[in-house]
Design goal:
about 325 residues; alpha/beta; Rossmann fold; 7-stranded mixed β-sheet; globular; ABC_transporter-like_ATP-bd; ABC_transporter-like_CS; nucleotide-binding; ATP-binding; ATP binding
Length: about 325
């Protein structure tokens, strides 16, 4: 049986307070299983990164978690809510149980410190009693793990290529062998060859070390190849989630189909790229009913009136997936 590792339950994240608050994440329920790669896809502004920062309590002001739970299933301590941890408990939880690889490695690494010192500082913060020699040996091991020679410990971030900087960040994220690695669009600024190399190494590391991955990107074509399951976000909500193969071959939500039609097929006959007309919704003035209905080619009467509920579709083979669309009645 697949064990849940993190369960996000009815999570709501706002920017601001009171009547002027912008609801960036709305009633999101999502489960990351042990050893799984879960992809999270959607256009810019759909709430993907806000969801990740909300579940790890990394939201900068004026972001606030307005409601919900993030249950972490610790095999030793048992399940607990990350949102209720004290500051000291949260410091122990971060990097040891869950780590994050941010979108821009150059912005995440300190430009005036060598790579080696940044790796050893992260290790020392959680294991201050260890020796300097042990920390340096671990830092070299991490660099070798992600395909970077150990002598690069003396380099500054600007002396590394974009791909190498991103690999350093992945190595740093694995320093304390966390159970969960959250990757927030880590390959956005890289060319397609480097993207494939880094993602291939990530899959190999996952198989070796057994951690789970929440991979956030707007590029659905990457997730189809490297993810076990994919969740699609639009307007701050999950609108569909299913095994990656099902999303690719038989997507149910028109928004998922629009994302799939926005990139060229690698194999088979040529087809015209369709894209999605219009623009993502303004979170300050969301449309009534389904947020996607103003752009949806299949919208009909209920779409503009009521918000569809995310549930298991009432159709054959739908037990492993959920969808929120009036085209597909749910159980």
């Amino acid at each position: 049986m697949i064990e849940p590792l993190i369960e996000i339950k009815s999570l709501n994240v706002d920017y601001g307070l009171g009547d002027e608050a912008v609801h960036a994440v709305r009633d999101v329920t999502l489960t990351l299983h042990r050893g799984e790669v879960l992809g999270l896809a959607g256009e810019s502004g759909s709430g993907k990164s806000t969801l990740a920062y909300g579940m790890t309590r990394l939201l900068p002001p004026p972001g606030v978690v307005a409601g919900g739970e993030v249950i972490y299933h610790d095999p030793e301590r048992g399940p607990y809510d990350v949102l209720s941890l004290t500051n000291s408990e949260l410091r122990e939880f971060r990097w040891a149980e869950t780590s994050i690889v941010f979108q821009g490695a150059m912005n995440s690494l300190n430009p005036v410190h060598r790579i080696g010192s940044q790796l050893t500082d992260a290790i020392k913060a959680h294991d201050p009693r260890g020796s300097r020699q042990a920390r340096e040996a671990r830092a070299r091991e991490l660099l070798n793990l992600v395909g970077i020679p150990g002598d690069r410990m003396e380099s500054y971030p600007h002396q590394l290529s974009g791909g190498m900087r991103q690999r350093v960040m992945i190595g740093m994220a694995l320093a304390l062998e966390p159970k969960v690695v959250i990757m927030d669009e880590p390959t956005t600024a890289l060319d397609v060859v480097m993207q494939r190399q880094i993602l291939g190494e990530l899959v190999q590391l996952r198989e070796r070390l057994g951690f789970s991955v929440l991979f956030i990107t707007h590029d659905l074509s990457l997730l189809v190849e490297f993810s076990d399951r994919i969740a699609i976000m639009y307007g701050g909500r999950i609108v569909e989630q299913a095994p990656a193969k099902q999303i690719y071959t038989d997507s149910l939500h028109p928004y998922s189909a629009g994302l799939l039609g926005s990139f060229p097929a690698l194999r088979g006959p040529k087809r015209e790229l369709t894209g999605i007309p219009g623009s993502p919704p303004d979170l300050r003035a969301m449309p009534t009913g389904c947020a996607f209905h103003p752009r949806c080619p299949k919208s009909f009467e209920p779409c503009a009136q009521e918000i569809p509920v995310l549930g298991v579709p009432d159709a054959p083979g739908g037990s492993d997936r959920t969808v929120a669309c009036w085209l597909h009645p749910v159980r």
